[in-house]
């Protein structure tokens, strides 16, 4: 529904179970390619870096965190963002972000990101866990790895410093990072509302 047909699934723990459950992706209207990250116990930058072998030169792609639930229209908007830079979707309505204390925060200045991290004391938005990236992120991650920082945020901070990341501000869209039983219950509730909405539109 967000306009995506080709998926690269980076696996770690439970890789055989995921492959068995999802298969080729045909029944979802998708083509799924699997890349296994042997270093899945380490920070998430390693998982994205493992996917570089499945990305063509000059190709842009979306990165979605596997534990984030996102609406299709947000995926579509991020995919179509009109900027040559990499893009991060951010929620500017921080008062409604579920479990804000655990969210990755983003500080903005004149509409541009200047800092990102879970422990920012001053911030204007929350990272939705959705990026549009290209080969520049692999170069940034390699540089971050040399500095001993293996997280995706390490590479994103380099893109910010280089002026190669823009934000796509969103508000009044439901998204959630599912880290706890409480978050799972909230996600299930909203999925029921979302499914009901789809059924009404089809009638």
Helix and strand layout, with pairings?
Blueprint: E1 6-11, H1 15-22, E2 31-36, H2 45-50, E3 61-64, E4 68-69, H3 72-79, E5 86-91, E6 105-109, E7 112-117, E8 125-133, H4 136-146, H5 152-161, E9 165-170, E10 176-177, H6 181-202
Helix pairs in contact: 4-5
Key descriptive features of the protein:
two-stranded parallel sheet; globular; 6-stranded mixed beta sheet; 26% strand; 203 residues
Describe this protein's structure.
The protein is of the alpha+beta class and 203 residues long. It is built from 6 helices and 10 strands. The strands form 3 sheets. Strands 3, 5, 6, 7, 8 and 9 form a 6-stranded mixed sheet that branches. The protein has a two-stranded parallel ribbon with strand order 1-2. α1 links the parallel β1 and β2. α4 packs across α5. The two termini are 18 Å apart.
The N- and C-terminal alpha carbons lie at a distance of 18 Å
In N-to-C order, the SSE pattern is EHEHEEHEEEEHHEEH
- Approximate shape: globular
Output the radius of gyration: 17 Å
Regions with little confidence, pLDDT below 50 for 5+ residues: none
Question: Count the helices. How many?
Answer: 6
Q: What share of the residues does DSSP label as strand, in percent?
A: 25-35%
How many strand segments? Answer: 10
Tell me about the largest β-sheet.
6 strands, mixed
Mean pLDDT: 92
Helix content: 25-40%
Q: Structural class from helices and strands? A: alpha+beta
Summarize the structure.
With 203 residues, the protein is α+β, with helices and mostly antiparallel strands.
């Amino acid at each position: 529904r967000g306009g995506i047909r080709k998926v690269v699934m980076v696996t770690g723990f439970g890789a055989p179970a995921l492959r068995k459950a999802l298969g080729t992706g045909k029944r979802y209207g998708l083509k799924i390619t699997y890349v296994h990250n042997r270093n899945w116990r380490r920070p998430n930058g390693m998982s994205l870096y493992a996917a570089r072998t499945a990305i063509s030169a000059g190709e842009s792609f979306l990165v979605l965190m596997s534990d984030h639930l996102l609406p299709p229209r947000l995926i579509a908007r991020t995919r179509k963002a009109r900027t040559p830079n990499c893009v991060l979707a951010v929620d500017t309505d921080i008062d409604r972000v579920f479990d804000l204390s655990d969210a990755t925060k983003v500080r903005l200045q004149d509409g541009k990101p200047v800092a990102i991290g879970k422990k920012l004391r001053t911030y204007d938005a929350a990272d939705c866990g959705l990026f549009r990236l290209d080969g520049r992120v692999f170069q940034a991650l390699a540089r971050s790895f040399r500095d001993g920082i293996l997280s995706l945020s390490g590479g994103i901070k380099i893109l910010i410093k280089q002026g190669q990341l823009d934000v796509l501000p969103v508000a009044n869209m439901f998204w959630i990072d599912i880290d706890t039983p409480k978050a799972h219950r909230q996600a299930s509730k909203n999925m029921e509302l979302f499914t009901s909405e789809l059924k009404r539109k089809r009638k």
